[in-house]
Amino acid sequence: MIRADKHMKKGNRDAKPLFSGKNNDNLIDIMVKYLLLSAALFTILAIIIIVYSLASESFNFFLHIPAHEFLFGTRWAAFFDDKSFGVLPLLAGTMLTTAIALSLAIPVGIGSAVFLSEYASSSLRRIVKPVLEILAGIPTVVYGYFALYFITPNLQYFIPDLYTYNALAAGIAMGVMIIPTIASLSEDAFYAVPQSLKAAGYALGARKSTVVMRIVIPYTLSAIVAIIILGMGRAIGETMIVTIAAGLKPTLTLNPFESVMTMTSAIAQAATGDAPRGTIEYTSLFAIALYLFAIVAILNLISSYIKRRWEIRV
Fold first, then answer.
1. N or C: the chain end with fewer CB closer than 10 Å?
2. Residue 288: which domain range?
3. Can you state the angle between helices 263-270 and 88-114, rounded to 10 degrees?
4. 168 and 149 in a common domain
């Protein structure tokens, strides 16, 4: 009887509790795993729904307007009696304002990132960094009125023939808007350069500018190109600035002093209520949006490919 009691006590000591700490940890890990999986699947589902909604309405548009007329037509007049749905003027206006924005944002953004990561003291960095973050947080509608009521009047002192609504002022405002994006991401890329590579350059007697141009920039080139393409996609998709400052004149031109209409401003115009649901003007909104979505998706794919292809691994 005594031996049986001993065996029972020993068995109780060897038995594992039903809810041990290890089991709880495993349960939490499984819950977190499936929670994160559901978040990832939600983003994929959202993209599928967006593409479906754009494609379904665009299909109704292309039942009435041939695709080649939409893609290669040189006249956009969706709300006139003599209707025309050539998207080339909208594409030209979009690319013109984007090119102006990038011509300002790329040198200023990358230059700011180099200064902050390589030259600025910690105290100066604490001042400049929040200023960039403030620029990133300004609403785009504010940039639009800033372009219309500040940039354009000042440009007209030097360019008397400049239209009140013009691509140049809108592009400059867009460039200021995307400077924080390029500067912040480029600074992160520069910080990722191994310190051993920089130290090797300094050990060989190289100046700081030489280290930046020969080591830092080449090492981060793939990331910089990807960041520039990301900024380009941000500029292409901008709506409020171009709607307020660039005008709503669908002109096939590359003159930055003239009024232009971009793809996003055409969507904003069609979505204001002038196009009743189910009409061809209404479905043209989705055709433009699908075209714009395809352009941005291609840019993102190019950015990912360049980053993988040119990335330097040490």
1. N
2. 71-310
3. 120
4. yes
